[in-house]
Amino acid sequence: MAGVQESRTVGTGPALADDGGPIGVIDVQLAVTARNTELLRRRAREPGELDRAAYLILRALGRLSSADINELATVLGLDASTVGRQVAALADQGLVRREPAPDDRRRSVVSATADGRDRAALTSALRQGRTRELLAGWDDESLAEFAGLLARYNAAVAAHYMTGLHLDSTGPDEAD
């Protein structure tokens, strides 16, 4: 297939390619990426490292300072009840605090605790370290291109399936 280097590595070779051209390759590679993400979660997770849900909530709170459940749900592209359950679990672990909203005491405002911010920073450092190690042979131009394409893909997903804000590496209101 033009533009795709042949490999015998599982997940990148001709056995997983299809006749869909670049879209077919992207489809398969995204499935492999999801599998690899799960593989890294199982094999490389360090003590104190947050799971994906906790990490993304704490990153969002790091950008927003505080938010109610509905705002977090919008930023994360999730259902408010799902975010509510995840926030409750984080509160039980002492990673976030919930306080009544000053303008509506029926609503809770969530913010990260110092421990939550520390664990998010640890998780970020560990994840970036693994990524840096995996991509050690890549030049700066390739890294920048890959980062840009991932951000562009995630922005397309967000624009198509999410409403409102979404989370990225620079802030909640920009494409990721």
TrEMBL record:
Keywords: DNA-binding, Transcription, Transcription regulation
Gene3D superfamilies noted in UniProt: Winged helix-like DNA-binding domain superfamily/Winged helix DNA-binding domain
Residue ranges occupied by any HTH marR-type domain in the UniProt entry: 1-155
Pfam family, one: MarR_2
PROSITE patterns cross-referenced by the UniProt entry: HTH_MARR_1, HTH_MARR_2
Coiled coil: none
Alphabetized SUPFAM superfamilies for the sequence: Winged helix' DNA-binding domain
Keyword check for Transcription: yes
InterPro entries per UniProt: HTH_MarR-typ, MarR/SlyA-like, Tscrpt_reg_MarR-type_CS, WH-like_DNA-bd_sf, WH_DNA-bd_sf
Protein name: MarR family transcriptional regulator
Source species: Luteimicrobium album
